[in-house]
Amino acid sequence: ENSSASDRVQFGGCPAEVAPGVRFMGEGLAEFATTDDQLSNISLAFRSTQLAALLLQAGSELVVSLHHTRVRVSHPNGSLQSDQDGLNDNLWHEVVVTVDNGSLTLTVDGSSVSTPAPSPFPITPGSLLVGGTTDPSSTATAENLRGCMDDLMLNGRAIDFNNAVSLEGVALYGCPPPGATVPITPPPPPLPPPPSIRPNVTVGLSGAPGSFIAVEVMEAQVASSFDILLEFQTISSSALVLYTQGTAAMFADYMALELRGGQLYFSYNLGSGRAFIVSTGTYDDGLLHRVSLTVCVIVRHIL
User: Cα dihedral sign for 106, 144, 147, 159?
Assistant: First the structure.
């Protein structure tokens, strides 16, 4: 192996169960560009074990945080917090903030508290910060979120983490249930290549529009899991590394491995809905990287 190659990158393992949501590592945040200049409602679900954590910040006017195990909403005219405490129990909790008729209402798991607030409630358009902030002085008692979040909505619109302008310390592949671990399956031993393919062939691609390599593969039934092994080396931060799709017109099966902002983004749909996973590191450094993909599926037709 090339001595300058990175440690092996693995998208692997088949957890017994993966809960929905986005995982925050406590070291970063997600940032979204917004044009909203008023707030009518914002909602999310979260789980964490922290005593204090920043959940989101809308403009400079609204901060939602976990504060001494309660949910607190801070705004220019004051703050209010949930009646419930102990919300750092690593269970899912639903949070809704609404502004209507001169009142700001915080609802946590169906229980509401209210305080006077301007209606409409102005916010500075520009960015929505989730799980952390670029201005720590605004939330001196809160740390970046270390936990999970789901069902984020702003003014009635679902916020898709795939559309974030910045992701740092955020994993989009979902949250394992409390106490669960996601195993990493070591790559299987390599199979001998078919007679028509020469082993250990390195191919260089220019990146010119329309350039690619097509490889014909044998049709095969996919059982409960399969593995893909490959190596690549590039300085491009945005590129399609691998793509394949089903041959049957009635199915929309596909798999794609891409570089997005230097991160590896693997997505697929093998008959049970689209799924994706994103690496935490970046790999557009010009070094040789080895990727091992382990996919666990239940498939009833041919790729």
Answer: positive
